[in-house]
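User: Structure please.
Assistant: Input sequence and predicted structure:
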Amino acid sequence: MPQVLSTILYVLLFILCLSILIMIHELGHFTAAKIFKVYVMEYSIGFGPALIHKKRKTGETYFSLRVIPFGGYVSMYGEGVELPEGQVIEESRSLEKAKAWKRAIILAAGVTMNAVLALNLFFIYNVACSNKQLYLRNMTIAEGSKAEAAGLVTKDVIAIDTEIDENTEEWYVKENTTYYLLDNAATIKYTDSTTETVYAFIDTKDIKNFTDIQINRFIVLFSTKEATADNKLKVDFGKQVPYNATFVSVTIDFKTVTKWDDKGEKGVEFASHPIEIMNSEGALEDFGYSLYLQVNKPLPFFKAIGQSFVDFGESSLLIFRALGTLFTKDTWNSLGGIIAIGFQSTSVLQNFGIGKYIYLWGALSVNLAIINLLPFPGLDGYQLVVLAIESITKKKIPNKVKTIVSIVGLGLLFTFMIVLVVKDIITYLF
């Protein structure tokens, strides 16, 4: 029963958030129309039969909440909608009689409000929520793991031994930081009790996703060459040592290198941390060592403002890229409708918390703004194009033509939405 209740709550929250996006969009059209004295007959959230359809006694606009919450509209006098029988409104209050620049503002106000909402949601996320920032050359050590038992600690920073040079400025970084070697010697113990020293190399070039990785998957063993004059073993990358069943264990000696500064005198300190990376069955196991570090850190006020615009730009770029490859196989496979958005937004809330959920709805608000700017019949972008053509040519396109084109366009849009819903049902329910 609790699971059913939580599912219902997630669905209601999704509908509420989606309705807010639509409400803000239509509020832009409504507010601009009111500012320019255009007569607004109805402000509606949703389509279909009305659940609520009321207006104030002294008001002129009906406010409606309809059964299907996945859309909305503002009905204005002069955009092809007939006035109620017996009602007379001055022609000057018609949308068609408004000056072109006023009509353009009214038409663009919806996407503008979505853009403003997105920036605000990004700002809330950046300034108030914990931002998980990835530091890819840092490591995280799991509590109670073999790595922790060996003395490795979270926030240690990767440093390849060949890069270590205590005389360079790069060595002394800000904050109290510990360095550790990414690659080092390993000892293999065989079933016949013999041992061999090899080179343990962590191959990071094949790591595509630094989160939730078991680092042992990327450890490669190589033979070592003879010791050099400084008694350091050199790796022989031409002789890889394959993992096999004759191993009893593989122990890697991870070495940390800590910087210190005593009254202006700088130096480094090395420490060994041997970790056995095989279990008793001879299989590689996760020993609690990850090559990334996540830090929860809200941004300062002004930096959060700047980052909000960066987030807006990145979200815009993503939707433009998706539109550019809309009819490719990869994009189609990843494309989803309203059900997909519901599932994915719920997953974000469950797995990443309210911060990422707010960020996601900011991105969806950007998407709604850009989609509505497309010059496709039935969308705001199409009406802006028609207005531009009429303003340039000084000729009015017949209302009958505009109505037919809009109906066809809306029909295609609804058909596309239905196709996506069917695709979502097959993907998520079957």
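The chain is about 40% helix and 25% strand.
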